[in-house]
Amino acid sequence: MRKLTKILFAFFILALLSTSICMATDVNENIPTSSKNIVHKDLFMANSDSIVLEDIVEGNTFIYGNDVTIKGEIRGDLFVASNSVTIDKSSVITGNLFIYGSEVYIKGSVNNIYGFASTFNIENSGRVNRDINIFTNELNLLGYIGRNANVYVSNIVLPENAQNLIGGDLNYSASEDLNIPRDAVSGDINFKVSNNTPSTEEVISNYISEFILVFAYAFIVILLVAFFMPKFSDKLVYALEKRPFVSAGIGILGIIVIPIISIIFMITGYLVYPGIALLAVYILTLSITISILSIAVGKYLTNKCKNKTKLKFILLSLLSVVVIWLLQLIPVFGSWMSIFTVVFGLGLFIFAFFTKKDLTNLNGQNSAPTTASTAEQPKTDGEQK
Q1: 10 Å Cβ neighbour count for 61?
Q2: What is the percent of the chain with per-residue pLDDT over 70, rounded to a whole number?
Q3: Hey, which bits of 126-280 come out as E strands?
Q4: Contact 225, 217 (CB under 8 A)
Q5: In whole angstroms, what is the distance from residue 355 CA to residue 344 CA?
Q6: Would the CA dihedral through 239, 242, 243, 247 be positive or negative?
């Protein structure tokens, strides 16, 4: 699961890079090592055309381009998203390869592979020293895999009389048994039928599991706000009631701008940790948008009641969570409701977090001034007497 998260995180960053960027830090251009430059830190490269990397990178490498060829040595992990990716014969990747592309050609040496591709080719010279974990339509295996191959695939192509191409086990999921030659695999061959249509029981089970997770997560957030941040809930309901369009605009802008700012911070090389922290807060906030919107609605409904208590606020907020979650399940409308929840929830959060407006007298909590003015009247009458 951590590996999968790392893949999605890396490709999320790379996919947002739409401009031509090529940045490396601490490059020693005057030290020849087999006529190749050495990059002593992480390397970030992006280009809409072709990218050829021939350097030795003593760190992690992040690449986004239309056609990527690796001819150097990566002494860390390589994250690459491209239409076509080629790991050349001369290349060595001592870390992990996280890859997303249409066509992938492995001709050099790689430690571990995690990837998504339409066609995945491991050529005769290609060597995966450890494991391969991929989703692909077709795997053309001519090279060697040192340990286990875990693949979700439509077809696997092997050479005739193939022997010991996979040093460990082959675990594959496909729509039908592909009749893999026994001699091609040193370990066990484990086949699982891929079924894209879940049963009714599985659908119901998934819905129940999802609801429990969402409800429990929201319950924790609502309790924290109710007992430790009551003023924050006042700001949320103010944004919902008085500034709905401003909050929606902030949400739309935040979804677009915050990841871009985070990436800009990270690629500078000097604000990497602030950039990662900002992106982490952004992702965390998106995960609680249904809670934020429910808190605002629950607080609004509580203010309409005669007796305002924390228990009513918590119960009405939890009821709002259930209603919003159910609305998201409605076909077609549910998709729009999900988008609305994320956008509006993020906008409410940002508005409430940064607003400095004094909400002491909001929602009818202006009894103090009225009492004061009433108390002043007898004093004035007494003075006149």
Answers
A1: 25
A2: 82
A3: 127-128, 132-141, 144-145, 149-157, 170-174, 189-193
A4: no
A5: 16
A6: positive
CA distances to 251, 292, 328 from 218, rounded to whole Å, are 20, 9, 16
End-to-end CA distance of the chain: 81
Tokens representing 35? 């006529």
Tokens of 81: 């998203």
Exposure class string for 371-380: b at 16+ Cβ within 10 A, else e: eeeeeeeeee
Phi and psi at 128, nearest 5°, equal -105, 110
Strands 36-39 and 27-33, by their bridges, are: antiparallel
Q: DSSP letter for 348, please.
A: H
Question: pLDDT for 133-191, tens place per residue?
Answer: 999 999 999 999 999 999 999 899 998 888 889 999 999 998 888 888 889 999 999 99
300 Cβ partners below 8 Å, 6+ apart?
237, 240, 241
Q: Structure tokens of 143?
A: 């090279």
Task: Tell me the residue type at 66.
Answer: N
In sequence order, the 6+-apart residues with CB closer than 8 A to the CB of 92 are 73, 74, 108, 109
Q: Tell me 362's DSSP state.
A: G
